[in-house]
């Protein structure tokens, strides 16, 4: 039931992001000259690296889910023996990768603001910061969820099926956030 509820909730989130995409394309269609001028300021190579970090975090998240399904909470052996990692190690790595992504977004925001691209500066700035900002808030929510799942594994005396389901549900959310970013990245950075 929890998985189904999460999928229904993510469907509503999908509609929210669909509205943001619609706003982006609508405003872009009305102001093509503005788009040509403003998109030149985007650092596509930097954003590509940042995107790669986020997309790879989906892989580490899924490896954590596989560990949870096996009932392996912590690592077996040395921290350098990746094959022996459990849910905690994979989710900590995923958390760190998500934090790097957010730090990259913040760095990009500072760079664009120095170039004069802000929310009130133009329609482009408004739509850029709304779409990427709301996505960043969703990533931050995912980071909090990872901390809760990791913390729960330390508090619980025994790893249960419910904890594995929690890890799976968080992974659904994280994969959703990654897929949305791939769409945003393609829309904002590649289709200029």
Mean pLDDT: 91
Helix proportion: over 70%
Q: What is the molecular shape? A: elongated
Question: Structural class, please?
Answer: mainly alpha
Instruction: Note the total helix count.
Output: 6
Rg measurement, Å: 19 Å
In oligomeric terms, what are we looking at?
Answer: single chain
Percent strand: under 5%
Q: The biggest beta sheet, please?
A: none
Q: Number of DSSP strands?
A: 0
* Intertermini distance: 42 Å
Low-confidence stretches: none
Walk me through this protein's architecture:
The chain has 192 residues and is an all-alpha fold. Helix content is 81%, strand content 0%. It is built from 6 helices and no strands. Helix 3 packs antiparallel against helix 4. It starts with a helix and ends with a helix.
The gist of it:
With 192 residues, the chain is mainly alpha-helical. The chain has six helices and no strands.
Salient structural properties:
192 residues, mainly alpha, elongated, single chain, 81% helix
Explain the layout of strands and helices.
Elements: H1 2-30, H2 32-39, H3 44-70, H4 87-114, H5 123-155, H6 161-190
């Amino acid at each position: 039931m929890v998985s189904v509820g999460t999928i229904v909730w993510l469907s509503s989130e999908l509609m929210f992001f669909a509205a943001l995409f619609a706003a982006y394309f609508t405003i872009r269609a009305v102001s093509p000259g503005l788009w040509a001028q403003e998109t030149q300021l985007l650092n596509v190579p930097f954003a590509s690296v940042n995107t790669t970090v986020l997309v790879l975090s989906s892989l580490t998240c899924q490896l954590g889910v596989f560990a949870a399904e096996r009932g392996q909470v912590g690592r077996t052996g040395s921290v350098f023996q990746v094959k022996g990692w459990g849910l905690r190690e994979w989710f900590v790595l995923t958390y760190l990768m998500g934090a790097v992504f957010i730090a990259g977004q913040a760095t990009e925001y500072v760079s664009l603001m120095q170039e004069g691209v802000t929310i009130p500066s133009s329609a482009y700035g408004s739509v850029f910061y709304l779409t990427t900002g709301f996505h960043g808030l969703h990533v931050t929510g995912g980071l909090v969820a990872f901390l809760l799942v990791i913390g729960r594994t330390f508090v619980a005396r025994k790893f249960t099926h419910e904890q594995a389901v929690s890890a799976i549900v968080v992974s659904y959310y994280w994969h959703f956030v990654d897929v949305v970013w791939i769409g945003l990245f393609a829309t904002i950075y590649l289709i200029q």
